[in-house]
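mind reviewing both lines:
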Amino acid sequence: MTSPAEQLESALTATLEEKAARGHTKPPTRGWHPGARVGATAEHGALLAYNDNGADGICNLASGLGTWLNLAPEGHDRDFTQRPYSVWRWRPAFNGDTVRLLGALAPEAARLELVAGRTVAEADVVDGTFAVEIAVDMVSLRDARGRLEAHDSRSDEGRAEFERLLADGRREMTQVEVRVYDSAGTVLYDSAAINATD
């Protein structure tokens, strides 16, 4: 099961079953469409989704299956006044993993690239959504797991280390850049991938 439609259906089914079992409000079951994705068959991937009613979500993927649909909160950011894309989720290269950036493109944007040094990765773009990952050596995050495991997570030291990792991740991500192009190939944006509000 690797088609975006199958992954979305799998994620919706799993989410609806879980929500029903817990007695929570269920997300709408109709009107969903698959958007851009990364890690389609990887151990942990992501598939963006959007609904005809304007709702957005991110499906968590596990080895090609959709396992969960996280709905974007009300007032979800699709504000393109500062830049021609909005960030729904970002992830630095913890433990040597890839950097990921997921979100939506402004109507005038056609293509997005993630740039780290001389390495460039082109985003998957589907119906105004984008998903991109790139291999980046973020030295301070290479052993994030070890740094966390060195402390009891409930201790002051454990919480402080967790906060340091988050700060290191945000600092490292500011070194990754985004380039956004329109359909004619004109650069609309070329700057840091995330900002203080992401």
Summary: The first helix runs from residue 4 to 22. Residues 92 and 170 are 7 Å apart (CA to CA). DSSP finds three helices and twelve strands in the chain.
